[in-house]
Specification:
The protein has 16 helices and 10 strands. The strands form 3 sheets. A 4-stranded parallel sheet has the order 1-2-3-4, sandwiched between helices. It has a 4-stranded parallel sheet with strand order 5-6-9-10. Bound molecules: zinc ion. Its cofactor is Zn(2+).
């Protein structure tokens, strides 16, 4: 008899995560604790459970701009090396406890310099936290590899500097670059020099595109900027049609959707987050399954575990419950993510063949 897909069983299988924000995944108790230590008095709640509820409720806002507001509180408590180190280390512990075996966690150095830290000091503290978190997890019998993406805020003008930071730290745990923040009015091409710098250094990057804004953003990210992956990319559905008269549900792709599929451009899909920002109305209406059926390279991600009150297991489970996915599907999404990681090819293959496939094999009929 096959093993049912439940929170408990999904929680045990290896998972790979490409899109997770460090400042969106703090433990509520840690936010309260550090706020007390650094004298930050503006938290809306000081009881960890009530604070968790506040984040979840406020984040379910229906717009990306309003969704981003609560980050002012998490960023406020991430301004010292000790705080950054602790948040990074706990992030790894939490992912490992959820059986995530590979993660790329991103953060924006420019949001963590209010206390006078340099970009390099901020990055050093985060990487030290990741490294010790990996050691803690290994000691607890949970192997996890965590790498870092450095993000530039798209409304600011620091992207070239952040890209240079990514290259400076490329052999110390930073495997890529990204831009994030309010999408409308800030097209990817505004940061072309940063992307050209990355390409010039044979380095890789993803771009938040097609979340709050549609096809033009995705087109720029791919055609002008040369993104290796798309953060979200859900709005590519505007270029996909399903013939309602066709009982076989044939999916037709426009040119842009087709090139994403044909070039195997990974989509970093974040179902719960997309509902909260209003990119889609509900999980049932999420185009995850349409995109999977259209054979785009879909991956499952958390985006912001605190704001969305989620984990990789919860995201996988809600998709399985909504679209009827079984273990073979969940393995495919996990392998998709691992294939799309920014670590070297041989390391990706090793995790796929030695960690992911053997554990799913026992579950697939
Ligand atoms: Zn994101």
């Amino acid at each position: 008899m096959s093993t049912p897909v439940s929170l408990e069983t999904v929680g045990r299988v290896p998972k790979a995560l490409l899109h997770d924000h460090l400042d969106g995944g703090l433990r509520p108790a840690t936010v309260v604790d550090i706020a007390g230590q650094v004298g930050y008095d503006d938290l809306p709640e000081t009881d960890p459970e009530e604070l968790a509820t506040w984040f979840r409720t406020r984040s379910h806002s229906g717009s990306l701009e309003r969704y981003l507001e609560p980050f002012s509180h998490t960023v406020a408590v991430m301004q010292t090396p000790d705080a950054l180190y602790r948040v990074a280390r706990e992030c790894v512990e939490d992912l490992a406890a959820d059986a995530v075996v590979y993660a790329e966690v991103r953060f924006a150095p420019e949001l963590h310099i209010e206390g006078g830290l340099s970009f390099d000091e901020v990055t050093d503290a985060v990487l030290a936290g990741f490294a010790d978190g990996e050691l803690d997890a290994a000691a607890a019998g949970r192997e996890i590899t965590v790498r870092c993406l450095v993000t530039a805020m798209r409304h600011a003008a620091l992207s070239r500097e952040i890209a240079e930071l990514a290259i400076r730290f490329r052999d110390k745990g930073v495997v890529g670059f990204d831009i994030a923040g309010a999408e409308a009015g800030y097209p990817p091409s505004r940061h072309l020099d940063a992307f050209e710098y990355m390409r010039d250094h044979n380095a890789r990057f993803t771009i938040h595109a097609g979340e709050a804004f549609g096809l033009p953003s995705i087109h720029e990210a791919i055609a002008f900027c040369g993104a290796d992956r798309l953060g979200h990319g859900v709005r590519i559905t505007d270029d996909i049609t399903v013939d309602p008269e066709d009982p076989s549900g044939t999916v037709r792709l426009g040119r842009l959707a087709a090139i994403l599929r044909d070039k195997r451009v990974p989509l970093e899909l974040c179902p719960s987050s997309n509902v909260q920002t209003g990119a889609v109305d509900s999980i049932a209406e999420h185009p995850f399954d349409l995109l999977a059926r259209a054979r785009l390279r879909v991956t499952v991600n958390t985006d912001n575990r605190l704001m969305s009150d989620t984990t990789m297991s919860k995201e996988m489970l809600v998709l399985a419950e909504t679209f009827g996915y079984g273990w073979a599907d969940l393995q495919r999404f996990t392998v998709n993510a691992m294939k799309s990681a920014f670590i070297p090819f041989d390391q990706r293959v090793q995790i796929i063949e030695e960690v992911i496939k053997p554990q799913y094999a026992a579950l697939i009929d």
